[in-house]
């Protein structure tokens, strides 16, 4: 298990990576990772593109600060609600432009590409609630069973994963899927994969070990 200082450094690195990818602008967005019974989370008011470990605060699951000199993000309850409800290791909240755009229009992002199955299939859009409120935290928690991502209406996006890297990759994948939808909508109404098609992809993925490196000569049949 990493130390809290290592966790703070990892959160800072992840924040800068998300900012470099264009998913975080200014002080908008927040990142956290769980370390045992503690959570390392970005501090409020910090610029995510230049986040340092000193700008990451450690709290317990009740939200009490354990270490750090800065107050945690105003979305702390959003993060804590996910950790309390689900078996997950990290949470990423962004104001990514394409994800935010989809949340202005749709009630759900359908599955256009099989890569979205990694996020749990279609992505729900959580009704609008002001940031930092318990109502928002509760609504997100209600939307996430079986899902690795949700869109927040007129706000942004939330993803989680077993590891911090996975939560970041899920945020990048969600932004890619939202971009795909918007690009396709320029040409016409996007055509989602049917449930039967999605199941067929899952069966192939399980049979072939899709997404896992394989030594030569060990390809599944």
Automatic annotation (TrEMBL):
GO annotation, cellular component aspect: cytosol
Keyword Metal-binding carried by entry: yes
Domain of life: Bacteria
Database matches in Pfam families: Aldolase_II
SUPFAM superfamilies named among the record's database cross-references: AraD/HMP-PK domain-like
Keywords associated with the record: Lyase, Metal-binding
Ranges of residues in domain Class II aldolase/adducin N-terminal: 9-182
GO molecular function, one term: metal ion binding
One Gene Ontology term from the biological process aspect of the record: pentose catabolic process
Name of the featured protein: Class II aldolase/adducin family protein
